Amino acid sequence: VEAVHLIADGKAPRIPQPEEGATYEGIQKKENAEISWDQPAEALHNWIRGHDKVPGAWTTIDGQVVTFYGSSLLGASVPAGQELTIKGASRPGLVTKNGLVVFGNDGKMVLVKNLQFEDGRMIPASKYFSSDETTAVELTEEEKKMAEDIR
């Protein structure tokens, strides 16, 4: 009550807030988002999820920086997949039909849905070992007419 009266009377003390530490900008740097693999699966999941979309949690695979997006904890048994060596990880990840499975130091699993490469290209993690084949998009007659109208 006393504080409210001081404010109402215009006599409340005013203490300016310091500028130091007044931003979150430093947290959002890409170099601060590298994944530390010596953690339990839940901590890995929280790290990846916490950096999704900006700046993106990343690691090194085959000498190139790869950013992980869309993680979830995986409670099932270890799925079948193709092994993928990840720098710093205690055991290789598995590229499965559902995405990339990575392991925490507790042996539990995290499923990562999407990967982005240094060149900006983003792919579903399940397609990591797929060749870079491109498929042509087939337009219906209505879509062809719309494309022509847009041109």
From TrEMBL:
Q: Which residues form a coiled coil?
A: none
* Entries under Gene3D superfamilies matching the protein: Formyl transferase, C-terminal domain
Question: One GO molecular-function annotation for this sequence?
Answer: catalytic activity
InterPro entries in the cross-refs: Formyl_trans_C, Formyl_trans_C_sf, Formyl_transferase-like_C_sf
- Annotated Formyl transferase C-terminal domain residues: 29-131
User: A Pfam family for this UniProt protein?
Assistant: Formyl_trans_C
Superkingdom of the source? Eukaryota
Q: What is this protein called?
A: AL1L2 dehydrogenase
Q: What organism, scientifically named, is this protein from?
A: Ptilonorhynchus violaceus
Gene symbol of the encoding locus: Aldh1l2_0
